[in-house]
Amino acid sequence: MRKETESSAEEIQTKKVYFLVIEYIKTLIKNDDITFGSKLPSERQLMETLGLGRNSIREALRSLENMGIIESHHGQGNYLKNHMDKSLHSMLSLLLLIDECNYKEICQLRRIIEIGAYLLSIKQATDSELMELFHSLQNLKNCNLKERTIYDKNFHDTLIDISGNRLLQLLNRTLCQLFENSIHKILDQITPEEWQELLAYHEQIWECLTKRDESGGITAIMKHYDMLDIED
After folding, report:
1. What is the pLDDT of residues 183-228, one digit of tens each?
2. Long-range CB contacts (within 8 A, 24+) of 110-114
């Protein structure tokens, strides 16, 4: 019983240290002392500033690295990074592995993300952003077989970027990593007639966005994903 109590106390202490380090990093960011890519204070500096032991600091930093918030460079220190998409990718991959979710549910999430991004984009898309999406569409229409996956991804990334919602952008990057190989296989195997149909949906999405057509754009997105959704 005593060992269990000691173990619980250590776990609580680690969580407290983790939050202390997080709050300190947030303060540094708020004061413009560090930005993404900046080097964090050394372990010794963190120990002195926060009044914590080396092991506690290292455990907290390891947790932050696992979350994709910092990146450790051996012999150089720790740097503030934004690798949350990799962290989310690992989490979703694990959930798939242990059957806590399936590909059908993730496909549904992909639709929701793009529809949400489209609804935001029709309210705020600028002429330059619409032109950027048009160029992505033209690249997709003129690409060769090997380039399909690249330019298809570019089109959808651009649409979601126009939304201006960073959480949707993060989720999009994460799901793209999960589906990259599967989408490549699908686009590589569809018939010329199916490819033309898929291109038509992309064109409809762009045209509806320029017209601020909510229902037409959502319909085109739904039909697009009907063709690409992966069965469990």
Report:
1. 888 888 889 999 999 999 999 999 999 999 999 999 999 999 998 8
2. 110/175, 110/179, 110/225, 111/221, 111/222, 111/225, 113/160, 113/168, 113/171, 113/172, 113/175, 114/156, 114/159, 114/160, 114/172, 114/221, 114/225
